[in-house]
Design brief:
Two copies of one chain form a homodimer. Chain A is α+β, with helices and mostly antiparallel strands and 90 residues long. Chain A contains two helices and two strands. In chain A, strands 1-2 form a two-stranded antiparallel sheet. In chain A, a hairpin with a 2-residue loop joins strand 1 and strand 2 (16-22). The relative contact order of chain A is 0.09. The interface between A and B is large, with 41 and 41 residues.
Chain lengths: 90, 90
C-alpha cells in the first residue's frame, strides 16, 4: 500500500530524461520506465526506420493491448471467484 | 478466442495513420487505437508544451503503470482463487 508522500524521480527513456512524480515508490516508477524503454528498443529493432514519435505511439499501442488482455483475464477470474463464492454460500 | 486469420486495419492516432496487423479483431485494434489517442489528448491537455514523441512516451508510461497495477490485482485474485480451491479440496 502506498502512502500519500509524492515521490519524484528522473528516468531515462530512449535517450530522453523524464521527471516523474507520483504516489508510487521510486522503484515502481523506475520499473515502469525501464519496461517502456525496453519495449521501444524492441519495436525499433523490427522497425528501424520509424521516428521516435511513431515508435513511442506503437509502444503505447502495444502496452494498451497488453493492458486490455490482462484486464479481460482479471474479469474472467473475478467472475470465476464470484461463482465459487456464490456456490459456497448457496 | 481469436482464429489465425491476420486482420489488417489502418487507424488514426494523434493525427497520424498507422497500419496495424494482428490476430485480434478489427474492433479490438480500433479500440486500442482509440484508447491511446484519447490518453495522448488527455495528457496533452495538462502538458500543452510537450512534443508528440514525449507525449507518446508519457502515454506509454501511463499505460504501462495501469498494466502493472491490473497485473498485480490479477495475481492477488489468482492467489485467492488458489487458496479457495485448495480449501475445497483439502
Amino acid at each position: 500500500m502506498s502512502d500519500q508522500t509524492i515521490t519524484r524521480v528522473a528516468v531515462d527513456i530512449y535517450g530522453n530524461t523524464y521527471k516523474m512524480a507520483g504516489y508510487e515508490s521510486a522503484g515502481h516508477m523506475r520499473l515502469v520506465a525501464t519496461m517502456v524503454d525496453d519495449k521501444m528498443r524492441e519495436i525499433q529493432r523490427t522497425n528501424p526506420s520509424l521516428d521516435t514519435a511513431k515508435l513511442a505511439v506503437l509502444t503505447a499501442v502495444n502496452t494498451m493491448h497488453d493492458y486490455l488482455k490482462v484486464k479481460e483475464q482479471m474479469e474472467q477470474l473475478e467472475q470465476e471467484l464470484k461463482q465459487i463464492k456464490g456456490g459456497l454460500n448457496g
